[in-house]
Amino acid sequence: MKRINLLRVFGVFSLLMLFSASFRANAQSVVVEAKLDSLEMLIGSQSRLTVEATFDTGSKVVFPQLKDTVVRNLEIVETFKPDTSWLNEGKRMTVSHSYMVSVYDSAFFYIPGFEVLVDDKAYTSKSLALKVYLMPIDSVDIRGIKDVMAPKFVLSDWLITGCGTLLIVILVVVAVYLYKRLKDNKPIIRKIHVEPKKLPHEEAEDIIEQIKERKLSHSEDAKLYYTRLTDALRVYFSGRFGFNAMEMTSAEIVEKLLESNDKEAIAKIKSLFTVSDLVKFAKYKPMLNENDANLLSAVEFINKTKIDVPENEREKPHDIIIEEPRSKKAKRILVGSIIAIIVVIAVVMFLVGRDINMMLF
């Protein structure tokens, strides 16, 4: 019995060792393959060459570096990105490197096996063979050379040429005009329309008329009303009495007026400016009748002191002709413009000529 048990134990142990060795052998197995989509092809056509390796995940792998050719005259047209797929729940993996190859010589090509390094150990694929044929010729249907055909007229082909030619004509006309201007050296003539300046009381009356049209005397904005009213008086004082009323205070204006005017007439103007200052700076709110009275005082003062000019003595609207000699700066601009146009003409002519040459020849 004891001997039988020992034999059983030895047998089980042997099976376990064989299974373990087999598992390690499978786990460490590396498969390298090379294949072509087609082993026969016509000259000038293309075929896909694939080199793939299957190995355990985590292994260090180095594929052969193919650049321009696989073997002599078998050219690489395109190199694809490597493709990876997983096996055995991620324990193993397959990596493929693919190339699009082509050949321009009819021959039989022998492609030796590709060497792939896996964990610094070399594994080689099987060799491949590729047969390349010439294009088949149908000897029965041989035809002579056809006559030369004239190309069809297409408007779009001549559009750029036509536009370029038109541009050249326009630029030549402009250049000739500028050259004549430069040679004539005529003065620059400008016409200025002159409107006669209004009399002081007319300017003031225009402002007062705007106040009436907008009914500012009855507006709640008293500050705006008195600002516009005193502006009308300041404009009138500046033109009529010759002092800069626009830059003076109310007190300074009244003092200046007292030097050459009736004190009784100026009293109402003084009162108007006093109310204006109270409205602007003390937020005083005058009554409507007070606003109307101040407006009337301003109109009366202007009418009493204005100096009118008869219509036949007034200056009429007229135009002034000014002749200015052409400056050196203007001449430089003309010369620079002419040179720039000549350069542009030369460039456009070159482009048009090249376009015509390409279409005709």
Structural write-up:
- The protein is an alpha+beta fold.
- It folds into three domains: 29-133, Immunoglobulins (Immunoglobulin-like), CATH 2.60.40.10; 155-192 and 326-360; 200-308, no CATH class.
- The chain has eight helices and 14 strands.
- The strands form four sheets. Strands 1, 3, 5, 6, 7 and 8 form a six-stranded antiparallel beta sheet that branches. Strands 2-12-9 form a three-stranded mixed beta sheet, with no helix packed on it.
- Helix 6 packs across helix 7 (288-305).
Quickly describe the structure.
The protein is of the alpha+beta class.
List the helices and strands and how they pair.
Layout: H1 2-28, E1 31-36, E2 40-42, E3 46-56, E4 61-62, E5 69-71, E6 74-79, E7 83-87, E8 92-103, E9 108-111, E10 115-118, E11 121-124, E12 128-133, H2 159-184, E13 188-194, H3 200-213, H4 222-241, H5 250-258, H6 263-282, H7 288-305, E14 318-324, H8 328-360
Parallel strand pairs: 2-12
Antiparallel strand pairs: 1-3, 3-8, 4-10, 5-6, 6-8, 7-8, 9-12, 10-11, 13-14
Order of helices and strands: HEEEEEEEEEEEEHEHHHHHEH
As for the number of domains, it is 3
Question: Which percent band covers the strand fraction?
Answer: 15-25%
Mass-distribution shape = elongated
Mean pLDDT level: 81
Amino- and carboxy-terminal Cα gap: 107 Å
- Strand count, sense and closure of the main sheet? 6 strands, antiparallel
Q: In DSSP terms, counting alpha (H) and pi (I) runs of 4 or more, how many helices?
A: 8
Radius of gyration, in Å, reads: 53 Å
Uncertain parts: 18-27
What's the number of extended β-strand segments? 14
